[in-house]
Write a structure and sequence with these properties.
Layout: E1 2-7, E2 10-13, E3 18-26, E4 33-39, E5 45-51, E6 58-60, E7 68-73, E8 78-83, E9 92-99, E10 113-114, E11 118-123
Length: 124
């Protein structure tokens, strides 16, 4: 099992940037695809971005393409989500997740381990 702890959330104005971090412990994280999901108030949790475990291919939701960048540092067991040009509609709790799979899975059910989430609020 992997324990995941997110950080880096906060309050930012429209057009601003934040970088989320997710530190993992437990099972060797380099064996896991890593993803970020978000849940806005009153809405379901949805896929944001994913990065594969070996070749570091990435996948993004259409709503964040060109603005968000996912990356990982396996030596530090850490995954990052750089968020630029933030919009009020990006306001949500952001969750980090790990899946013992190849590729860049987008379905939540494929991720076994989840963090507690970090709040991102973008003011207009």
């Amino acid at each position: 099992q992997v324990q995941l702890v997110e950080s880096g959330g906060g309050l930012v104005q429209t057009g601003g940037s934040l970088r989320l971090s997710c530190v993992a412990s437990g099972r060797i994280v380099s064996r896991s695809a890593m993803g970020w999901f978000r849940q806005a108030p009153g809405k379901e949790r949805v896929f944001v971005a994913a990065i594969s475990r070996v070749v570091l291919s990435t996948n993004y939701a259409d709503s964040v393409k060109g603005r968000f960048t996912i990356s990982r540092d396996n030596a530090k067991n850490t995954v990052y989500l750089q968020m630029n040009s933030l919009k009020p509609e990006d306001t949500a709790v952001y969750y980090c997740a790990a899946a013992e799979l190849g590729g860049t899975p987008t379905f939540q059910a494929l991720y076994r381990d989840w963090g507690q989430g970090t709040q991102v609020t973008v003011s207009s």
